[in-house]
Every structure is written in C-alpha cells, then in structure tokens.
Amino acid sequence: RDRYMGEHIDLLLIMPSSAPTQRKFAMVCASNMNRSMEAHSLLLKKGFNVASFGTGTNVKLPGRTATTPNVYEFGVPYDDIFNDLKKKDHELYTMNGVLNMLDRNRKVKTAPQRFQDAMDGMDFDVIVTFEERVFDALVDAWSQRNPKTFGPLHIVNVPVKDTHEDAVVGAVIVSKLCQKFEETDAEEWDMVIADFEKEHKLTVLTSV
C-alpha cells in the first residue's frame, strides 16, 4: 500500500478499486459535530452517497470555559444535545454558534456516530478526515478490521481548522475533491490528488 503524508494532506491507498456508478463517501472528524457534519450536509445536498463519523472516545462541545467542555456519548441524538445546551445557557450557545451547528446536524441525521463502533459492514470508496490525529486513529482502527469485511478504500486527510467558518470553507473544498473522485477511475486518483495540491497549494509526501 502507498501512504501519502504531508503537512497539509495525507492519502492512504489500500488496494485499487474500479469505478462504481456512484462512489460511497464518509466524512470523519473527532466528534462528528462540526467539520464532518458540515461536509456531510453539503455533499448530501449535492446528491453524493455520504455518511459521517467521529473517532473520539466521546463527543466534546465547547463549555462555559476552555477547561469545562460539554461531554456526551456517541449515539446521544443531536436534538437531545441541542435541548440540553439550550436549557443550560441559551444565550452563550447561541452566541458561539453551537446551537446553530446542532440544528444543522439534526436535519442531516439523528445522532453522532463513532467510526470504530460502526466498522463492521462498512463499504466506502473514500473516507475524508480533517486533521492528522483523526487520520491516524482511523487508519489504526481500519488496520484492525475483520479481514472478511476488508475492501478497497482510499483515506484522504484534508486538514481544516475546527471552527464554524473554516468548516464551511473546508466542506466546499472537499466537495470539489469528491466530485473529481466521482468522475474518474480510481487508477487516476493519484493525478486527481496532484491537481488538487496544485490548485490549493498543498504539499504531499509519499512513502511506500
């Protein structure tokens, strides 16, 4: 397998795959709250076959201070989290954009999902992560997957800062990359990545 590791984008290629009629995409960040859900929402609107996940131990959202985050289990509905934070401090969580983010999320799917708990039966062509530690956690989890369910997979890391504004911009960039993947055979994806690097001034290092 080839692993592309760079300052801005990593690509892990596990087995080449032929082009299906529609690619299956997954967006993955730490908590399945901001970056993965912004991309999930946009790609869904554009007609992509897409899902989203987190890789953290639990779901963390900003609290009243940097050292007191709001922590929830994966699987707790976005709607329940929305109502809980609205009750705790409606003004604060409106001002910092968390309630707006949760409102978007609950319109996309029911609850945040943890990647490691949902791997069995997964069948994606491309998984996109948004920071290197999530990329590493996902690759580690995938390497321990049941061989019987192992299939062709490309994992791409496109780093996006974990802010609401950057998530919006990142989702647009990722949607363009996914559109290129949708339109080309997997054998051409090295060139797709190279063109993506040039367009967005990214540097990719390759190790085999």
Give the topology string: H per helix, E per strand: EEEHEEEHHEHEHHE
* Total number of helices: 6
Q: Averaging pLDDT over every residue, what do you get? A: 85
Distance between the termini: 7 Å
Beta-strand proportion:
15-25%
Main beta sheet: strand number and arrangement?
7 strands, mixed
Q: What is the CA-atom radius of gyration, in angstroms?
A: 17 Å
State the oligomer. Answer: single chain
| Uncertain residue ranges | 1-7, 14-20, 203-208
Please identify the structural class as seen in this structure: alpha/beta
Overall outline: globular
Count of distinct strands: 9
Arrangement of strands in the largest sheet: 4-3-7-8-2-1-9
Q: Give the fraction of residues assigned to helices.
A: 40-55%
A few lines on this structure:
This protein has 208 residues and is of the alpha/beta class.
Give a written overview of the molecule:
The chain is α/β, with parallel strands linked by helices and 208 residues long. The protein is built from six helices and nine strands. Strands 4-3-7-8-2-1-9 form a seven-stranded mixed β-sheet. A two-stranded antiparallel sheet has the order 5-6. The longest helix has 20 residues, at 164-183. Residues 1-7, 14-20 and 203-208 have low confidence and may be disordered.
Write the topology of this structure.
Elements lengths: L1 E4 L4 E5 L9 E6 L5 H11 L3 E6 L4 E3 L8 E3 L5 H18 L2 H11 L17 E4 L2 H12 L9 E5 L6 H20 L5 H12 L4 E3 L1
Parallel strand pairs: 3-4, 3-7, 7-8
Antiparallel strand pairs: 1-2, 1-9, 2-8, 5-6
Helix pairs in contact: 1-5, 2-3
